[in-house]
């Protein structure tokens, strides 16, 4: 969370930083700010979105060839002008931006208060900056050395970038736990939390690792560790196009990303699922096939929507591979004392690859000898680098805070993995294997069919947009889809929603049902179809308003439900890839109808890099 951008070179820094902040706004939008250094060091910051900062700076002289910028997701201190970054050091010589949390900031703050320092914000960032400033002022050392000394005492996660009035050509950055990419141009460098602010200018980038410090000048990038040893930067080429991070004519990124799904799922399957050969190629799986085959247990760790993908995968792996699967919230797993055996396989699922809880959870499991397999979207992300093996989802950049195309791509990857493993283990026969491969390869076209007629979903959304609560129910493979539908609605429309296994409803949630409550059933044709119809009857008997996602041609539910949304028929193992699409659209259209900012819902951020 929090987005950082910085520039040093020969161009005007402000427009580059401003555009970069707009691209990174998905990471947090409580406040934003910039610091620019020309003849003097100027800091401008503002509560609210980047557009508000931009407006407040109209008419100001913002000329500078070096600068830093920040868009904040508040952790320490409410969203306000004074808590916005960049922060200025007590000497007035340094400006700093920070993404992460300094856990021992309280201790550092009381030491500094005893020395007579005073603070102008409630942030941990200002404390760290004052600490660095204090070391530099009193130890007669360089800024670089002061940062190194300070960071050795810091507990927590950070990316920091510091602008120094006395070194108008130099930025110093350091990282532990939060992401930082440096773009290498001709006589210029770009720094950012991800590659989206950089891609327009250069495709050559260096990903900074934990405990590394970068000294960046227009013509020079020096990388060191905290022991002051020089490290050779590993330059990578970005495999991303500018169009992928722009709205391309859609009103919102979320809508664009929903509509991209036929392509993203296709891209995910392409080159892997070879129907004619009857084979699935996945290098990460092949290289660790023996360990996967021998696994006594698979533990899936993830958060949010990725956790829901993990729940679907639990059903699929257990059914096809006959391996017990546990699905864990990464945030709980990391603080428990989980029993992990050396032969266990951990699958970490994450769109961003930066989720702090998931990252720490896999590091913990790795220490105990488990194989870590990442199912990730962002190439080169922290979780990708911490994993032993993995498979990318190839969904392309996901900018809308509500995850959509990443979820379906995760399901596609996990299903291919399970199928491949099941075939190797001999837990499914060739006929079923071939059938499921065909079912999977048909998904992009079926998603396209759903997206061709969204008017009905929009009308349903408008009809129920004023409801105070929603209940989502599903069984089997569609139970996680109910959870995902409820999460999407909460995030985007701020309507309270709960997802439940349909049969579990009788054990409590049914008390909520009255003639005002919309109950969304994910009721495509599968082994539980008759059972879910009974659950629907139970809701109808209590006058609940039933909205159902059904398989095309299902006249029984059409006659029973108040409203239906149809999806093409599919094997139940791949059905969630279809049934989730109306759920995404329902949430989207309700959010839009209520006039909400669906791409940047309140209080949220795209990458949750703090715990
Ligand atoms: O990047 P990750 O997949 O690790 O993110 C996990 C969750 O933070 C994420 O899925 C979140 O729940 C989304 N806002 C859901 O739409």
Write the layout of secondary structure elements.
Elements: E1 3-8, H1 13-24, E2 31-37, E3 41-47, H2 50-56, E4 66-72, E5 87-88, E6 94-102, H3 105-114, H4 124-139, H5 143-153, E7 156-164, E8 171-176, E9 181-184, E10 189-192, E11 204-207, E12 212-217, E13 220-225, E14 230-231, E15 236-237, H6 253-259, H7 261-269, E16 273-274, E17 279-280, H8 283-287, H9 289-294, E18 298-302, H10 304-321, E19 325-329, H11 330-333, E20 345-350, H12 356-367, E21 371-376, H13 382-386, E22 389-392, H14 405-425, H15 430-441, H16 443-452, H17 455-464, E23 469-474, H18 479-493, E24 496-501, E25 518-522, H19 529-541, E26 545-551, H20 555-560, E27 563-567, H21 576-593
Parallel strand pairs: 18-19, 18-20, 20-21, 21-22, 23-24, 23-25, 25-26, 26-27
Antiparallel strand pairs: 1-4, 1-10, 2-3, 2-4, 5-6, 6-7, 7-8, 8-12, 9-10, 9-11, 11-15, 12-13, 13-14, 16-17
Helix pairs in contact: 3-4, 4-5, 7-14, 7-16, 10-14, 10-18, 14-15, 16-21, 17-21, 18-21
The structure holds 5-amino-5-deoxy-1-O-phosphono-D-mannitol.
5-amino-5-deoxy-1-O-phosphono-D-mannitol is lined by residues 303-306, 350-352, 355, 358, 401-403, 487, 491, 607-608.
């Amino acid at each position: 969370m929090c987005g950082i951008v910085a520039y040093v070179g020969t161009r005007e820094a402000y427009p580059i930083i401003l555009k970069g902040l707009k691209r990174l706004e998905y990471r947090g939008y409580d406040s934003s700010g910039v610091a620019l250094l020309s003849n003097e060091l100027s800091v401008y910051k503002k509560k609210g979105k980047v557009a508000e900062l931009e407006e407040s700076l109209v008419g100001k002289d913002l000329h500078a060839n070096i600068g830093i910028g920040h868009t904040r997701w508040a952790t320490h201190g409410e969203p306000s002008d004074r808590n916005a970054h960049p922060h200025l050091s007590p000497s007035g010589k340094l400006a700093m931006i920070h993404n992460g949390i300094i856990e021992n900031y309280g201790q550092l703050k009381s030491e500094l208060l005893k020395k007579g320092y005073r603070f102008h914000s409630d942030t941990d960032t200002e404390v760290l900056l004052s600490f660095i400033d204090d070391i530099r002022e009193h130890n007669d050392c360089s800024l670089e050395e002061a940062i190194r000394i300070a960071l050795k005492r810091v507990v927590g996660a950070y990316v920091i970038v510091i602008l120094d009035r006395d070194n108008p050509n130099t930025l110093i950055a350091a990282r532990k736990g939060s992401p930082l990419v440096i773009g290498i141009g001709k006589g210029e460098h770009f720094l950012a939390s991800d590659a989206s602010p950089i891609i327009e200018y250069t495709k050559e980038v260096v990903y900074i690792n934990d405990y590394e410090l970068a000294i960046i000048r227009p013509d020079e990038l020096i990388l060191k560790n905290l022991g002051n040893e020089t490290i050779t930067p590993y330059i990578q080429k970005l495999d991303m196009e500018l169009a992928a991070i722009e709205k391309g004519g859609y009103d919102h990124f979320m809508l664009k990303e929903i509509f991209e799904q036929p392509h993203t799922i296709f891209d995910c399957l392409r080159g892997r699922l070879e129907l004619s050969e009857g084979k699935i190629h996945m290098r990460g799986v092949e290289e660790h096939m023996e360990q996967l085959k021998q696994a006594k247990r698979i533990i899936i760790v993830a958060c949010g929507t990725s956790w829901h993908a993990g729940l679907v995968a639990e059903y699929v792996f257990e059914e096809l591979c006959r391996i017990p699967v546990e699905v864990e919230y990464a945030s709980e797993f990391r603080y428990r004392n989980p029993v992990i055996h050396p032969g266990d396989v951990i699958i970490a699922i994450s769109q961003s690859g930066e989720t702090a809880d998931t990252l720490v959870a896999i590091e913990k499991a790795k220490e105990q000898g488990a194989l870590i397999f990442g199912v990730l979207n962002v190439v080169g992300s922290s979780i990708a680098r911490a994993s032993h093996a993995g498979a990318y989802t190839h969904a392309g950049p996901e900018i809308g805070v509500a995850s959509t195309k990443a979820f379906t791509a995760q399901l596609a990857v996990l299903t291919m993995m399970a199928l491949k493993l099941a075939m190797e283990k001999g837990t499914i026969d060739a006929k079923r294997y071939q059938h499921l491969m065909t079912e999977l390869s048909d998904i992009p076209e079926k998603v396209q069919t759903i997206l061709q007629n969204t008017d009905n979903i929009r009308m349903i959304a408008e009809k129920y947009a004023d409801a105070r609560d929603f209940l989502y129910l599903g069984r089997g493979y569609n139970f996680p889809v109910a959870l995902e539908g409820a999460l999407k609605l909460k995030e985007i429309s701020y309507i309270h929603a709960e997802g439940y296994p349909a049969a579990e409803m009788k054990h409590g949630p049914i008390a909520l049902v009255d003639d005002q409550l919309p109950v969304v059933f994910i009721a495509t044709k599968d082994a539980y179809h008759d059972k879910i119809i009974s659950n629907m009857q139970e809701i109808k008997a209590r006058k609940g308003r039933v909205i159902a996602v059904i398989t095309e041609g299902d006249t029984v539910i059409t006659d029973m439900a108040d409203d239906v949304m149809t999806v093409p028929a599919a094997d139940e193992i791949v059905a969630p890839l279809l049934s989730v699409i109306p759920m995404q659209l329902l949430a989207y259209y309700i959010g839009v109808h209520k006039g909400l900012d669906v791409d940047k819902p309140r209080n949220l951020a795209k990458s949750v890099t703090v715990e």
